[in-house]
Amino acid sequence: MPALTRLGHVVLRVRSLAISVPFYTAVLGLREVARLQGPARDIVGGELAFFSFGSNHHDLALLESPQTRPADPQCAGLAHLALRIGDHIDTLRAFHAHLRGLGVALHHARDHEVSQSLYFLDPDGLLIEVYVDADPALWAARPEAVATVRPLQVAWLV
Asked: How far apart are the first and last CA of the chain?
C-alpha cells in the first residue's frame, strides 16, 4: 500500500457561510479561493467555500449546513482544528493581540512543550487552536513530549 504523505484538507460543517466566511478570513487570515454553488451543491449537500494558505489549491472548506447543531463535546467527532502560524512565541503574541483587537474571546491557552497554543471558538462553537512550534529538537529527542499539557500564562503574551 502506498504511504500517506500529508493531510490534504479539512471540511467543516457550519450553519452559515455569511457568518463563517468573514470569521475565517478576518480572524484567521485565510484566503477564499472558490465557492461551489448551483446544482453541484446538491451533490455535496450544500454550498461550499474553499480556502487556501497559498501553497495548496485548498486547505480548508466550509460546508453550509443550516441544520447543523453545535457538537456535543462528549461525542465522537472533531475535537478541535489546529492551525500552525509559525515557530516563534512573538508570532503567538501578535496573534493574541489580533484576537483581542477583533473582540474574539480566548477559550484557553496551553503550553504543550513542543508547541504553544491559543484556543478560541468560531461562530458555530468549533474549537480552533492556533499554535507556534517550539524547537523540533525537543520532540525529536523526546517524542513523548507531545503529550505535555500545561496552562500557558496569557499575561506574558501581552
From this structure: 48
Tell me how many degrees the CA angle 6-33-31 measures, rounded to the nearest 5.
Answer: 80
**36-57: b or e for each residue (b if 16 or more CB lie within 10 Å)?**
beeeeeeeeebbbbbbbeeeee
**Residue 129 β-bridge partners:** 82, 119
What 47-50 contacts at long range (C-beta under 8 Å, 24+ apart), as own/partner pairs, is 47/17, 48/11, 49/17, 49/20, 49/21
pLDDT digits (tens, 9 = 90+) for 10-43: 999 999 999 999 999 999 999 999 998 777 667 6
86 CB-near residues (< 8 Å, 6+ apart): 92, 132, 133
Q: Hey, is 110 helix, strand or coil? A: strand
SS3 label, residue 74: coil
**Chain center to CA of 27:** 11
The answer to pTM > 0.90 is: no
Domains of the chain, start order: 10-64 (3.10.180.10), 81-157 (3.30.720.110)
Return left, alpha or beta for 102; rule: phi > 0 is left, psi -120 to 50 is alpha, else beta: alpha
